[in-house]
Write a structure and sequence with these properties.
Layout lengths: L3 E4 L1 H17 L3 H17 L13 H5 L3 E5 L2 E8 L4 E9 L4 H6 L6
Parallel strand pairs: 1-4
Antiparallel strand pairs: 2-3, 3-4
């Protein structure tokens, strides 16, 4: 049974910023399109197998139930609600960024 998929405003903004940076700063619209396409495929696949990917390797964040999947050089972070049968993608961050610090500041499910 598939889970409902929700992408938070923060995650949408993260993805848009990454795509814009690749397209307009790095001047590579093909790579920007590829990132967007792969993000769509990987995020939509979470609905079928939400617990397929591991919890993050940080005790505090793992206690919050934050999981991630790789999307090219980025990480899509998400939480699973078994009660509501829903997945919320909370952030979409560059894998070499200090994403632990970003996530520890908290996140909204809106």
């Amino acid at each position: 049974m598939n889970y409902a998929l929700h992408i938070t405003v923060a995650a949408e903004q993260d993805l848009a910023a990454a795509v814009d940076h690749i397209e307009f700063v790095l001047m590579n619209p093909t790579a920007a399109d590829d990132l967007l396409n792969e993000a769509e495929v990987k995020i939509n696949a979470l609905a079928s197998f939400p617990n397929k990917f591991a919890l993050v390797d940080d005790p505090m964040l793992a206690s919050w139930g934050i999981r991630f999947t790789h999307v090219k050089n980025f990480l899509a972070f998400y939480v699973v609600s078994e009660e509501y049968h829903q997945i919320a993608v909370i952030r979409f961050l560059y894998e070499k960024s200090n994403w632990i610090s970003v996530l520890k500041r908290g996140f909204s499910l809106v």
